[in-house]
Amino acid sequence: MEQPPSTPAAPSVTTDIHTHLTGAPRSAEIIRLGLLHDLDYPAAMLRLAEVPLPEGVRLAEGDTRILPGGIAAPARGSPMVRLRDLPPESLALLEAAMEMPRRPATGEGPDPFVLLERAYSIRRPLGAHPALLPGILTSVAEDARRDGVTHIEFSASAPLAAGEEGEAWMRAAGLAARRLQATAGVRILFLATINRHAAPTDIARSLARLGELMEGHPLLAGADLAGHETNPTEDFMPVVVAWAAGRVRRGLPTVVRVHAGETPCHPGNVRAALEGFREAGLPPGMGRIGHALYGIGRREVTLAQEIGAVVEMGIGSNRALGYRSGPGRSGGGRRLARLIGAGVATVLGTDGHGIYGTSPALEARRALRDGATDLVMAEVARHEGDHIKRMGAAFPLA
Questions:
Q1: To which CATH superfamily is domain 129-394 assigned?
Q2: Between the CA of residue 67 and those of 59, 70, 121, 253, what are the distances in Å?
Q3: Tens-place pLDDT, residues 98-157
Q4: Could you tell me the sign of the dihedral formed by the alpha carbons of 309, 315, 320, 321, in that order?
């Protein structure tokens, strides 16, 4: 009798350097922590999650704001609901709405990135709440430890919050991360998320603020230019280059990640980011490209090799968002193999494992099913090891 195909063994994975903190914890854990801290939750986000509103709660259209990039948020002063007062069936609906829904095989339905932004919007009131930060970091560090991961880099917008709020968040994050390095053996660094759709003047102000914060918080490693890739990288790269070049001239370690080549909208985005890294003089490993599923040919490969740029591939998120390329509709495994074969430092990341229902080990198994080989994964492991050493040398106080 024919035997069913076996699932590939999970290769050794030691890093998750492309992940977003709000998307990292499991949905059930976010709600558990919210209940533990007896938090309120915005009624406007219950409506977005299609959770029935408690009796007597009324909402107006203006109680929901739409921020740049499509994120929804409750308006200031809009009604709040005590999380503990929601019935179990409503909490179950809320938990499900915090995850990326499975894409139909036909590919029909709403734009998956709109669904992703919806899930992030529903997560954010709890996932970004400062009271939950230590618990969330503990949860994701324990998940990582069980998975064999010893080095994580989280992107988060919270460090750039106005006034004292960002400072307070970084202090709490730093304390929790140091404790988890000692107790769980997982090293955590942070990147500050900046919306790639923001005006260049706003991006410049955010970068200036980030530079100030990095002086006092050694676990804050740099910037992540993120968001739905529907605009050219050239829109914002000059201000990023100016900021990064200034830090390089002063001998200050700086990571810059640009989400580029995640969608096919602007084929020149990867090249523009790589050219910006070269112009800024970023050392090897400090210039990062998130995804690079599209728009990376011989010219981009040569440039990436020349400057030592790192490509961070998220196969699970590529597939969830419907972004696939090449023979067999690869979500990134074949692209990973081609980049590794060309000598480009390439690693895997979950892109926020809770929101996508994945893990670093599952990403590695997906790569093997999607065109990578054991030799390719061995090279990924080598690049991970190089990365851990490089970051340890660049950020020794972390």
A1: Metal-dependent hydrolases (3.20.20.140)
A2: 19, 6, 10, 32
A3: 999 876 555 666 788 889 999 999 999 999 999 999 999 999 999 999 999 999 999 999
A4: positive
